[in-house]
Amino acid sequence: MTAAIARVSALINPAARHGLGVRAAATALAALRDRGVEVTELVGRDPDEARELARAATTSDIDALVVVGGDGSVRLALEAIGDTGVPLGLIPAGTGNDHARALGIPTDDPAAAAAIIAAGRRRPFDIAVITPADGPSAVFGTVAATGLDALVTERANNMSWPKGQLRYPLAAVAELARMKPFHYRITVDDNTFERDLILAAVGNTPSYGGGMKITPSAVIDDGLLDLTLISHGPRLKMFGLFPTMYSGKHIEHKEVEQFRGSRIVLDCVPTAPIYADGDRIGRLPATIEVRPGAVTFLA
Q1: How far is CA 37 from CA 43, 177, 189, in A?
Q2: Are 28 and 113 contacting, i.e. CB atoms less than 8 angstroms apart?
Q3: Which residues pair with 290 in a beta bridge?
Q4: What is the C-alpha to C-alpha distance for residues 136 and 120, in angstroms, rounded to an integer?
Q5: What is the DSSP-derived secondary structure letter of residue 244?
Q6: Does domain 7-121 fall into CATH 3.40.50.10330?
Q7: pLDDT tens for residues 111-124?
Q8: Which residues are paired to 229 by β-bridges?
Q9: Residue 238, number of CB atoms within 10 A of its CB
Q10: pLDDT tens for residues 165-213?
């Protein structure tokens, strides 16, 4: 469905991509205004304030909430939108930008992303909800990562150098060098089984971490979640498997299994953190469920 976009609120993350998001915002918002769109800028001092600003905006007379930032900012906006039905526009300005990849939005051209918003094409997409053992439920749009995945994300988020996507492979090398398997108990819909794994990832979209296709067959609007499991193996073999995640060819290795379902429960020993859209959500065990068509993107 297509409808005119006349008025938007733009949630801007000034820290996105270590400050480069401000430049992307200036370019994109100028392009929107040039197309006659009225833009109100929202900048929170911290994630909590940004979430509240976005929530308040969804109750006002706007045609869309626009996010200028990365995947973490999009997740924050998804929480703010809730069940309001307000469409979400995206100006990619983060490190990973995997929501944008899944939606076909240019990751390096803010003006082109703004043109997509102004065009007003509305498309329903799935989101997922995580309920961890140690905290409240949280929504996400791309991939939930546990085991090695989560440890890599945690290390990458804490790295001050290098900037950008290069942090992820360097963090992965560091974690692979000291990896130990986790014993998982997994339920996919009505099927329960156990595995010794180095990671388990649940994808609503194919990629995370800036294009790593960990769940390469995931589709953002099919009403299902994809699960990728990687069994423990010789360290050298794991080092060789990791680069193939960028192309999705890791699924050709015998250590990799894939499943698909609408409800996935993960638990492991020792317990491990779970991340989604680059943010730490809590610790396992956790239940992850899909919400088909729950959000409308301008894409």
Answers
A1: 19, 51, 44
A2: yes
A3: 128
A4: 34
A5: G
A6: yes
A7: 999 999 999 999 99
A8: 200, 257
A9: 21
A10: 677 778 777 777 777 889 999 999 999 999 999 999 999 999 998 898 9
Distance CA 222, CA 293 (A): 9
- Chosen CATH of 127-293 out of 3.30.70.20, 3.30.390.50, 2.60.40.1180, 2.60.200.40: 2.60.200.40
Under DSSP, is residue 287 helix (H, G, I), strand (E, B) or coil?
strand
Give the contacts of 176 (CB within 8 A, at least 6 positions apart). Answer: 148, 235, 238, 239, 242
The set of catalytic residues is: 279
Dist. CA 153–CA 167, nearest whole Å: 9
Instruction: Please report how many Cα atoms fall inside a 13 Å half-sphere around the Cα of residue 297, on the Cβ side.
Output: 24
50 phi/psi in degrees, rounded to 5:
-60, -40
251: tokens are: 């699924």
Structure-block tokens of residue 60: 């006002």
Domain ranges of the chain: 7-121, 127-293
DSSP 109: -
Tokens of 141: 């749009």
